[in-house]
Amino acid sequence: MRLRCAVLDDFQGVAAESADWSVLEKEVEVVSLREHIADEDALAAALTDFDIVVTLRERVPFPGSLFTRLPRLRLLVASGMRNSVIDYAAAEAHGVTVCGTTSSPAPPAELTWALLLGLARGIVEENSSLRSGGAWQSTVGADLHGRRLGLLGLGKIGGRVARVGLAFGMHVSAWSRNLTEERAGEVGVERAPSKEDLLATSDFVSVHLALGDRTRGLLGPAELALMKPTAYLVNTSRAAIVDQDALLAALHSGGIAGAGVDVFDIEPLPAGHPMRTAPRLLATPHLGYVSRDNYAAYYGQAVEDIRAYLAGTPLRRLP
Question: For the chain, N or C: smaller number of CB within 10 Å?
């Protein structure tokens, strides 16, 4: 009897075409689940007959309570090599091997610039107006050259974003609790003396920090109030780093000029969520990691992880 593998959150139905799953067909039946299952009871019921689960990013939590309800589960494959919503100790206690895949920093860095440029030049508004027969030129764009780009985080993604900003002729500064002068100099940017200074002096602020206890709610009402009313905020990292109610208030009041957001407190975003109708907001449905090359890596290496596990030599074990 073949093992059964569930591929979670295959929203676009592209997992099958992103890798060669046929190498598993003699031993594993692969089933794609295209609808997100947020409720743990419903998820446990949906996965009860599966031996292997492939999960996409950090959208589906795997706490100890869920592992307890999935006695058949033996292998969990997560996209990326870091996942904050998997209880690794519980996985080990229940005999579940957890493996990961590589994940490129290029796609989220590129999307950051798509959002930033879209905000600065009113791309959505101008495109909509042109295509609907509306006004010819209805916005006045914000310049990038000579302006200050402030980065919260200067890791693999933040570093890529910084180098593009420098190519545009922007003054780039960065801050994080652990950022050193050496790292800032390596990228060619200034190390901001404080988070507050970065927020108060930047014309564009972009978030590139990992979510953790020290970064959750890092930008709240007081921090957003430091930003210039002409400044823009971009977040392609994690929604919980920015207080969502404070962000909505700043957008509605005009406390900031606008925001570009790819991440939300609930995903997929419910139809009636206030982020769907907030003013001054350019939003995308968590597309930062969604690219052909990244999907080829995620699903191609998921296949490798499954084959290696079946051979008794698991690859890329987490944590």
Answer: N
Residue 186 CA, chain-centre distance (Å), reads 25
d(CA 47, CA 8): 10
Q: Known catalytic residue: 238? A: yes
Over residues 79-95, the mean pLDDT reads 96
CATH number for the domain running over 106-283: 3.40.50.720
Express each pLDDT in 187-228 by its tens digit: 999 999 999 999 999 999 999 999 999 999 999 999 999 999
- Tokens encoding 206: 């972009």
Asked about 182 being catalytic, the answer comes back as no
Give domain limits for the chain.
3-103+291-310, 106-283
Strand extents, DSSP E, 123-252? 148-152, 171-175, 190-191, 204-207, 232-235
Give the active site residue among 40, 190, 267, 304: 267
Active site residue 267: yes
CATH no. for 3-103+291-310: 3.40.50.720
For residue 317, list its beta bridge partners. Answer: 99
Report whether 283 contacts 275 (CB < 8 A).
Answer: yes
Opening angle at CA 165, ends 163 and 169, nearest 5: 110
Q: Pick the closest to residue 109 from 171, 162, 175, 150 (CA basis).
A: 162
